[in-house]
Predict the structure.
Amino acid sequence: MALPFRREADETDRLLALSDGVIAIAITLLVLEITVPEIPPGSQISVLPNLIIERWHEFFGFVLSFLVIASYWVNHRRIFVHIERHDKGIVWLNHLFLLMVVLVPFASSVFATYPDQFGVMFLSGTLALTGFSLALLWSYASWKQLVEDGFGSRTVEIQAARFLTSPLVFVLSIVAASFDVGFGVLTWLLLIPLNAALQSRLVENLEAYDSDSEYEGTG
């Protein structure tokens, strides 16, 4: 019985295929939350541009959720690039991540319908939990030593920091929105410089790791 279990542990293709499919569906459903405004009876069609502009929060929620899910997909892909095998814990933590991903379109819809304090906090909370579930997946994989051999602890730490950046920004957004809704929305902009800085550090460490691997291979 050990051989079939070992084959199952080494197989990640189906897990990735399921994840890609779920994420693709969730990211597509986001656009359905953008509604076409109806022109009031007796009004001219010239009022349509203003009606669309009034729904700016729907477009903003769509773009934000799309970019965040896309970022989480990139991080998810990056995790499984370095995971060589998996166990039941990885499978169920991955399902937890997918559970949160499919909730994002609903959270985006709530924000589009109620672009107030509750809407900002609800969307931020959902995106934060999604990010935390992904960080938990990486932490579990590194703790269980399911990542490729020789993967440096420093790189593991930078990866963890990279995965925690976005959810922590959304937690900050929740706190900020409790005082001022506009400030809560503005905190989302922190995602750009923080993720860019950590991504640069991560690339440097991965390049150093690849160089060391090549050197050991030729030694």
